Amino acid sequence: MLKSKTFVKKTRSGGVLKIVREHYLRDDIWCGCEICSECKDESPVLQRDACIESSLCTFPHYLIPDTNVVLHQIDILEDPLIRNVIILQTVLQEVRHRSAPVYKRIKDAIHDKEKHFYTFTNEHHRETFVEREQGESANDRNDRAIRVAAKWYSEHLSKSARGAETKVVLLTNDRANKEKAEQSGVIAYRCEEYIKSLIGNPELVDRLALTSDDQNEISGSKLLFPEHLPLSRIQVGIKSGAYLQGSFRANTDNYLEATVFIHGEGDKTTEVLIQGLQNLNRAVHQDVVAVELFPKERWVTPSSVVLQDDTPKDEDTEEEEAEKKLESPVLDITMLKPTGRVVGIIKRNWRPFCGMLNQSQIKEATRHLFTPADRRIPRIRIETRQASALVGQRIIGHFVRNLGGAGDKETETEVLLLEHDVPHQPFSQAVLSFLPKMPWSITEEDLKVRADLRHLCVCSVDPPGCTDIDDALHCRELDNGNLEVGVHIADVSHFIRPGTALDQEAANRGTTVYLCGKRIDMVPELLSSNLCSLRSNVERLAFSCIWEMNHNAEIINAHFTKSVINSKASLTYAEAQMRIDDSNMNDDVTKSLRGLNKLARILKARRIEKGALTLSSPEVRFHIDSETHDPIDLQTKELKDTNSMVEEFMLLANISVAQKIYDEFSECALLRKHPAPPPSNYDILIKASKSKGLVIRTDSAKSLADSLNVATVENFSYFNTLLRILATRCMMQAVYFCSGMDSDFHHYGLASPIYTHFTSPIRRYSDIIVHRLLAVAVHADSTYPELMDKHKLSALCNNLNYRHKMAQYAQRASVAFHTQLFFKNRGNLNEEGFILFVRKNAIIILIPKFGLEGTVFFENKDKPGPRLSFDSEGPTLTVEDQHTFHIFDKVKVTISLDASNIQHQKIRMALLEPVIPGVSVQLPEPEPEAKKPKLDR
Amino acid sequence: MAGLELLSDQGYRLDGRKAPELRKVQARMGVFAQADGSAYIEQGNTKALAVVYGPHEIRGSRSKSLHDRAVINCQYSMATFSTAERKRRPHGDRKSSEMSLHLKQTFEAAVLTQLYPRSQIDIYVKILQSDGGNYSACVNAATLALVDAGIPMRDYVCACTAGFVEDTPLADLCHAEESGGGTTLSLALLPRSENIALVQMDARLHQDHLPALMEAAIEACKGLSKVLDSVVRQHLQEVSVQTQD
């Protein structure tokens, strides 16, 4: 055994580092041929009569492909016809370096015993090792190594007695390489040449990948994206108007499309559409980017194709196809949107992302693709050595932390909290230090400055299981015949003093987040469930809003005061309803409830008269198993009379307080507005109702409410609800704002000229600020500088709006996840649903029973889709010229959980009715009993 | 870039060795005349120099002396030029101190210290070039140096590393293999009695794999002992030829 050394230099991460490695050369590496008499190989791979009938090579021969042939013609090499191939180690290493998928395929071929592929470790063979010469490129050296190995083989085989007629054939597409090989006496052919010469296998020629001779020198780095411009040029461009600056929003449904919101003067924002990977130019969701507008003739319409990047592969061929799909024919000039491309990134908005790892096909690879849980974030390449341990686990960021197994309930909850940026860590010691010391009781001083309302018959009405009770009500008849109505709100601002760590934490959290089976508190539990919670039969501090009303629910006077109350009963909605309905009960609490209920009806009627909207969204509640915490059943939320009773008085309190604080502090009142949606938002609603022959007027909230009320279709009771669901989708988001920074206060949905949030200080920070403002207004508390600073207040509003939006998303995601869990335990279900939207290649279906929305795709990646024709006017979609889907159509679908992609497990729906051959699915056979989950019993 | 393939399908390692094969070992004894014993060893690209002084009287504080046996004092250091990036501190860092301690423990098990009560034996080892298996190179070099110094030992102490890649134990890892992830086990063996003087493993390994890994390391140590033995015999021959003249 001969040993020898060679020195290899290598650079790493910028610095030049000399790396010395030993390289042993051996003379016990066998050629692997059956005919060879010299080598002592025990189980030779290459067959004796290696016959592929070829008109060029009439003799038995072995093939030696070079790197480029393997890379490009792997389809051919995989054909069962091609056997007895020698893969050189040099080639294998180069392939491994260049393309992981091809490497995987060639390895599979080598492992296939039928193929008789032999790997010759030429780099460690004493006679075939080639040292790089001065001035020789690595590629040239490898080519030479391949030639030397081929030459060695031909000489080696000719030495053996029976091998004289067996030869080796070098396959190369490189002209220079071929010439040199021929000079040294090796038979060399171009791949094309050789394949064409094969007798009786003309179909292989079709599989030849076309590569011109000149392309075989693979350029090391293909320029994938246009370069980002430097910041200085972007700034010049923005000044001159050549570029526009805006925030980048990726499209959730289509990873090749994004919108950039350009913030213009004032409130004006324009949207610029970006399509295609090249134009997106590596921008990531929420980056601030500079875009260049295309000339008008290149403007396009947003595609209504739903495109999901579900099958991650290393190859980018798929993406090219997908891009082609995007180029939809322009139907309507008016539909064109301003289109542009990203030229530079002004500010990255990267944060830790949650997601999971796709393992690379090469086992030892340290770089892997990471698929974030948020669809709008592209896949990220990360470097880790622990890949095998991390596969199937949820991780965060450039591998900051392992969150746990995917699909695990705890982990998924953690993921969705992180993804929606919900602060959910336990409260810090600093925060907890500001909590009152237990046992806590109301002191004499408290009583001195507060109105003592302990004698009043106050009660609270809440959903079952509610521990953070922040409102209570009372109603009594006054001596003058009028009614006194009081709304008592937990006095959280008494405990959370401005400027403390507790206050800052609450301001940051902004809101309590309710997930299925979990609550992320805004304030520590001691406050939220105990000291602030207006529980029955304990003395609590409150902020009371007391009106004197006549029996027509007209307010005669209102006053606000800090108070001490003692709630007589905490009821659920159902209990309260029962008391009201039960004529045998005549205690104070019940009388008070009846009075409230009566007034609430009048108030509601008056509000609707003014044009308040009654909208609808399918809401579901899960019944959670008490031990496993798995959802076992779900039901849609029911609304009782008492719900709206409480709601009515809360609205009244909010409006009264809004008016009061705005009167006192016109510059720095924290209010809430709901802007009227732009008319274009209603397009879908109008189109949809037109298809049913109805007219929806949208010129004002009042007319919208009225036309929604009369919009009914016979024999289709759910239609009105569907329409209201659609109308909800048209609405804008309600937002907090500071009165000094805005002029439009109108609340569209409630049809109120002014509105704020006052009634839930335990779970909303905005209410705490409103409490403080009101306390100052009624001289119950002192003011502090930040409260009167409209800029600071405005910044706070922005945070609150953001937190509220995120909390809402997190809530929805939590419901979606629990829905999945629910269906996981159920297997396939067949349900009726209604078409909510019609898209170009899919229909979106709402299943009222579960409040579940899902998409039925008509196109499949693997097989050609059915003929589809989409009419954007209807909008309707005709499938196979047989059935036309309209919005609101009733369909029957089968629901199952698709767990093929662990990262995005989703509910899959497939069409059962109407039956369209080739599109709809058959009713699945009933599952065998054994498979049924135990829960079904 | 994909990571390195430590073991190819054909069973060859990065540098062309098969799984149980050692790197090339070259050694010389008596490289310095001043010291009582000295040796130089190359295991592949790992090169180590060992020097032995003693046994002599305790230097420094007398309190360290032991009444029934000799104190073994080891010092391990790495030349600043021994690694690809220049080292700042040649000795005294935590790794070196730990290594010194390990060497001390190894040789206290092998040297017949009770023959020299109240005295001290100094072993200084220096890594001149580092390419994996620093500990084992040091042990092997120190063994030769102790032999050169004529200090009685129970047996040669032979050390070797072994690692575990794709269910195959690899013997005598080079630097790329050590840093390529996976477990490294260092083992110092008294080959004739098969007593283990020291074994160290600082990564996780499934218990089922441990016997195979230990077996590989022991085999490698035995192979090394043959090489060391031939070096000693060769050296003795040379010396006896010289002294005869």
Automatic annotation (TrEMBL), chain A:
GO biological process: nuclear mRNA surveillance of mRNA 3'-end processing; rRNA catabolic process; rRNA processing
InterPro entries per UniProt: NA-bd_OB-fold, PIN-like_dom_sf, PIN_dom, RNase_II/R, RNase_II/R_CS, RNR_Ribonuclease, Rrp44_CSD1, RRP44_S1
Composition-biased stretches (Acidic residues): 312-321
Ranges that cross the membrane: none
The entry's keywords: Exonuclease, Exosome, Hydrolase, Nuclease, Nucleus, rRNA processing
Gene Ontology CC: cytoplasmic exosome (RNase complex); nuclear exosome (RNase complex)
Main location: nucleus
Residue ranges constituting the RNB domain according to the UniProt record: 450-780
Record flagged with keyword Isomerase: no
Pfam families documented for this protein: PIN_4, RNB, Rrp44_CSD1, Rrp44_S1
Alphabetical list of SUPFAM superfamilies matching this protein: Nucleic acid-binding proteins (SSF50249), PIN domain-like (SSF88723)
Subcellular locations according to the entry: Nucleus
Region annotation Disordered: where it falls in the sequence: 305-325
SMART domains listed in its UniProt record: PINc (SM00670), RNB (SM00955)
Gene3D superfamilies: 2.40.50.690, 2.40.50.700, 5'-nuclease, Nucleic acid-binding proteins
A GO MF term: RNA binding
Sequence ranges assigned to domain PIN in this UniProt record: 61-179
Family assignment from sequence similarity: Belongs to the RNR ribonuclease family.
UniProt-recorded name of the protein: Exosome complex exonuclease RRP44
TrEMBL record, chain B:
Compartmental location: Cytoplasm; Nucleus, Nucleolus; Nucleus, Nucleoplasm
GO biological process, one term: rRNA catabolic process
Keywords: Acetylation, Cytoplasm, Exosome, Nucleus, RNA-binding, rRNA processing
Domain of life: Eukaryota
Exoribonuclease phosphorolytic domain span: 21-152, 155-219
Stored Gene3D superfamilies: GHMP Kinase, N-terminal domain (3.30.230.70)
UniProt-listed CDD domains: RNase_PH_RRP41
One Gene Ontology cellular component: nucleoplasm
InterPro entries: ExoRNase_PH_dom1, ExoRNase_PH_dom2, ExoRNase_PH_dom2_sf, PNPase/RNase_PH_dom_sf, Ribosomal_Su5_D2-typ_SF, RNase_PH
PANTHER family xref list: EXOSOME COMPLEX COMPONENT (PTHR11953), EXOSOME COMPLEX COMPONENT RRP41 (PTHR11953:SF0)
Family: Belongs to the RNase PH family.
Protein name: Exosome complex component RRP41
